[in-house]
Amino acid sequence: MQAIEIKPDIFWVGAVDWSMRSFHGYSTDRGSTYNAYLILDEKVTLIDTVKAPFADDLVSRVSSVIDPAKIDYIISNHTEPDHSGSLPIMARCCPNATIITSSPQGLKGLTSRYGNLPYQAVKTGEELSLGKRTLKFIATPMLHWPDSMVTYCPEEKILFSNDAFGQHLASSNRFDDENDLPTVMKEAKKYYANILMLFGKQAQDALKALSAFDIETIAVGHGVLWRSHILDILASYEKWSEGEVDDHAVIVFDTMWGSTERIADVIADAFAEKGIPVSFFDLRSNHISDIMTEILTSKYLAVGSPTLNNQMMPSVAGFLCYLKGFQPKGRQAFAFGSYGWGGQSVGLVEDGLKDAGCEICLEKIRVTNVPTKEQLAAIRDQILSI
Ligand code: FEO
């Protein structure tokens, strides 16, 4: 396998994972990449590694440029195994390399995963001279792990951003402008929603720290590199991390015999009547990570479930558990559903929405068995009144 030169003497040496369809539960319909970069300078430097099963790809691409034994530094921006998994193999292939990691969390994380390797821990603001080039390390704690950091090279105006600004997107092209931009932005949004959404404050802090740097290339840890649409992705991160939402409604439900779905239809129509666009997700056929992507920028959230054995449907419970993890503050939400007897589900859904940090903007909508025309008309009026 060949390295790809992205700037003179700087090479992409990562791996493309065309087949991956789930990243710990986040659906990755377009696969992903694990990006690593090789810098040839007086000190030869590898930035990040790849997921362990792809170690041969990394070694092969590095070897297409230089003997891996000549690597002096391996920068580990993040200890999660999709980036650090090949470190033990690279440590063997690169016996002269010092592994640079963040202090103290990176050092702690790598040591507990891989034992004692030749680590050097760096704090935010520290610099490392490679010869003609310098690397500056900036801690980005909880973006999205405690150890996370990014690395900036001022001479090349490259930010090696690891998870930040990434996308799970497998492509044979390495740059944003060589791919379909709406697809890249859609995957960047899905990535932010499902990996970073809980960490808006930390993302804001990172954006503030990075605003001091002149950046011409963002060399991400996943997906395609940004060089032509840097302002677009930075503006999107500003919006997403601030929690800025559009007048948009997300409707999520499961149904047993169609009554909860009928209510969902009327809610969708009523929002449309108000001029508010709707994303409509039946949990039987939609993945929670796609739903979260829409919730990221939507003001309204309606969640429906019939009652099953005194509970909400398990699919709805799973969705609410996932939502709670992201704490999407300020969404205007309400619960709806039908029931035969008992009817506990709608209250449980409302409790789940509150636990997820949503603001309840409408009284629970509960219907026995099958909604009548009058009940559906009343539901429409309720939505119009929001
Ligand atoms: Fe791409 Fe947090 O690992």
Q: How many strand units?
A: 24
How would you state the average pLDDT, rounded? 98
Order of strands, main sheet, comes to: 1-2-7-8-9-10-11
Shape estimate: elongated
Biggest β-sheet: count, sense, barrel? Answer: 7 strands, mixed
Find the CATH superfamily of the largest domain: Ribonuclease Z/Hydroxyacylglutathione hydrolase-like
Report the CATH topology name of the largest domain: Metallo-beta-lactamase, Chain A
In helices, the fraction of residues equals 25-40%
Portion of residues in beta strands equals 25-35%
Structure description:
With 386 residues, this protein is of the alpha/beta class. The chain folds into two domains: 239 residues, Metallo-beta-lactamase, Chain A (4-Layer Sandwich); 135 residues, Rossmann fold (3-Layer(aba) Sandwich). 33% of the residues lie in helices and 26% in strands. The protein has twelve helices and 24 strands. Helix 6 packs antiparallel against helix 7. The N and C termini lie far apart (58 Å). The relative contact order is 0.09. MU-OXO-diiron binds next to helix 2.
